[in-house]
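Morning - carboxymethyl coenzyme *A inputs below, output right after.
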Amino acid sequence: MNNKATLNINNKVHDLDLITGSENEVALDISKLRLDANLITIDAGFKNTGSCQSAITFLDGEKGILRYRGYSIEELANKADFLEVAYLLIFGELPTKQQLEKLSDDIKERSIIDEDLRIILNSYPKSAHPMGILSSLTSGLVAFDPSAVDIDDDEDMYDAILNLLAKIPVLVAWVYRRRKGLPLEYGDTSLGYVENIAKMMFQRPNKEYIQNQTVVSALNKLLILHADHEQNCSTSTVRIVGSSYAGLFASVSAGISALWGRLHGGANQAVIEMLEAINEDGGDTKKYMSKAKDKSDPFRLMGFGHRVYKNFDPRAKIIKVAADEVLKNLGIDDPILDIAKGLEKEALEDQYFVDRKLYPNVDFYSGIIYKALDIPAEMFTVMFALGRLPGWVAHWREMRLRKEPIGRPRQVYIGENLRSFSDINSR
Ligand code: CMC
C-alpha cells in the first residue's frame, strides 16, 4: 500500500503520511496539518482519532477480537492468573516462574499502608460512594510518598508500580469494610493475589475465613477480562494526566474518577440496578425495550452498546458462560439472570438494536456474578478499577517511556467575537 495520502484543499494539495500498525490498521498522520495548511481536524468524543501508538492491547471491534500483547482474551481468561496478566500488560511478556514469584513477594513486601490513611478513610461518611473514596485515597497515597518516579531508573519505576499494585487492593478492601462497619484488616501474605483480595474483603472478625475456589476463580476471570481495553475513557485520562508529568498515583486516581461514570465502568452498577428494577416491576422486558428505543425517554439499556465493538464484545461472551457456572456452583437461582438473558434475546432480534449494532458489553453480565459473590452493587465499579489497574499502569509507563508530548487538544471556537466591556451600571 502507498504510504502517502493527499488532501486537496481549495486546489492546494497536501501530502499526509499513512501509518500502518502491526495488524494492518492504517492511520492518517495529521500532526503537521496545522503547520502546512493552517487546519485542524475536529472529532467530538475522539470517535475517529488515534491519540497514540501503543503495543499493549489490540482490539478489532468489527470482528470482536481482543488481545493483550498478542494473547487472545479467551486464552488468558481460561488459563492465566491475574498477576501473570498484570505482568504481561505492564512489562510486555509473560513472566517466568521466578519472575512471577519475585513479583508476588515484592507486592506482599509493599502492601502495608500508613496508619494515618485510616484516619482519612474514617472521616468519610459511611454512605459516600466507594469510587469517590478510592480515587481520593489513591491520590492521598502520594502525600505519604511524595518522591517523583525517575522514569529512566528501572528500579524506581518498578518500585512505584509495585507499590500501587500492592496498596490498591488493601484500599479497596478497606473502603468496602468501612462501608459495612467491619474492622480494617490486612490480608494474608501466604495467599495468592486474588485469594488475598477475597479474604481481605470477606473475612469476618469472629469467624475463620474459608476460601471458596468458585469465588476465587470467578474473581480471577473478571479481573483479567477488565485488565485493559486500549484507549478507553479512563485509560486515556491516565495517559493525558500523566503526560503533564503528574505522577503515577495521581494519574491513576484521575483514571478511577473517569471510570466512575455510568457510560463507562459505572455501567455495571447501573445494569444490576436496571435488572432489579425490571424484576420489581414484574419482569416486563418489552416495556423496557420500548423505553430504550424511545428517543424522548432518557432510559438506555445499560450494558448494551460500545464505542468500539460493533459485534459481540468477546468479554461479554466469556462472562455470560461464567455467570451460569458461578450461579450453578454456588447454588443460586437469581431471577435477574433470566431477565438479562431475555433482554439480550429480544435486543438481538430487534431492528433498532440490529441497525445500530448494539450488543451486550462487558458490564451486562458481570454484575450478576459480583452479586452472586456477595459484592454490593456500589462496589462493582471498584472491582472494575481493581482489574483495570495493570492496564492503567501499563499505559502510563508506555506513555512516559515513549516520551509522548503533553496531551493538549485544540478546538474550533464558536463563541462571541471581540466586543467592548460595558460598565455594570450600563448593562
Ligand atoms: N440503549 C439504547 N440505545 C443506545 C444504547 C443503549 N444502551 N447505546 C447506544 N444507543 C443508540 C444511541 O441512542 C444512538 O442512536 P441514534 O443513532 O438513533 O442517535 C446510537 O445507538 C449510537 O449511540 P452513541 O451514544 O452515539 O454511541 P457511542 O459510541 O457514543 O456510545 C456507549 C457508546 C457505550 C456510551 C453507549 O452505547 C451507551 O450509552 N451504552 C450504555 C452504557 C454502557 O453499557 N456503558 C458501558 C460500556 S462498556 C464498558 C466500559 O467502557 O467501561
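Note: The beta strands are 4-9, 12-20, 26-29, 57-60, 65-68, 71-72.

O.
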